[in-house]
# Entry
Amino acid sequence: MFERLRENHPSATFYVLCSDTNRPALDLLDIILEENVITMRTGSAAALIADAVRAVRRMRALRLDAVLDLELFARVSAVLAGLSGARIRAGFHRFTQEGLYRGNIMNRPVLYNPYQHIANQFVTLAEAISSTDVPTAKREVVELPLHLPPLALRADEREAARDALYQRYPSLADRPLVFMSPGGGLLPIRAWPLASFAAVAQALIARGCAVAILGTTADRDLAQTLQRACGSSLCIDLTGYTSTVREVTVLLHLQRQDELRVGRFGEIGAGRDVRRNRSDGEDAGVGEVARQRREERRVDRLQRQRRLRPRHSDARDLEGLAGIDGGLNLRLRSQRQRGRKEKCE
# Structure
């Protein structure tokens, strides 16, 4: 999104308003000047209100030209966008969808598409600034190469983190290290089944890997359950070991090419060395399993999209939904053409 904004508006100055809990992730990206970040505390209602008032005053003093609201559910960000004084306000709008209603503050409303990666939808918000379509920024959504800039590590930061970890857990040294994050965060329903994590951990330990369980202190019970299921000293509990997003990110950068990560949805990524060293008779391995799971999810998503695709008798009713499916544009043209032909006959 920021790349597209800078491409479309090369002379613009960019500011970000975010919560104090999201600020560390923004700092990791290193794409906004520190003095251009407005932070709001969320620890208490009084702090939130006080910071919101200060944020509105600063935004109005800056005389912003445009505001992009990246929230999907929270209404407070929509209110702040409305109070910012910006002439252009772009944000997600539900149109005829259920849910997501956050008022009518945005004058560049963008249709939220649950079948597209959120990064692609943020690009659509960037395009909405200069769009006059209804819904805003109707465009052909193509699969963009999603990438993050590499983390700029400070001198000896990786080595210090590695030494501290291996000093505390010497059994991890000289072994491929797998990080698992079994917690579901604020929405536990998103988490992969714990039994599946346990099965993967047992299989990896059997291959000679060490498994480190990441998470907050609230995930400690999950970590201890996994440890009991594995019954091995090579499964260690790192819940609460890190206190900042940067510490977690540096920890993940300790891995070598032949080490693995297991994420919230059980996806497993393998380094090139692991794949290259497998014998022809060995099973496809965890990397192939992850690929198959991603393909199954993709097929399932397409099937749901076809089932939920709206069917209207009047092609004009579909004009506002053309951004949902690239194939709708062709269908609209064909229906209009058939209508004109019938009138001529």
Summary: Confidence is low (pLDDT under 50) at residues 264-286, 309-334. Strands lie at 16-19, 37-40, 66-69, 88-93, 108-111, 177-180, 210-213, 235-237, 260-262, 268-269. Residues 309-344 form one domain.
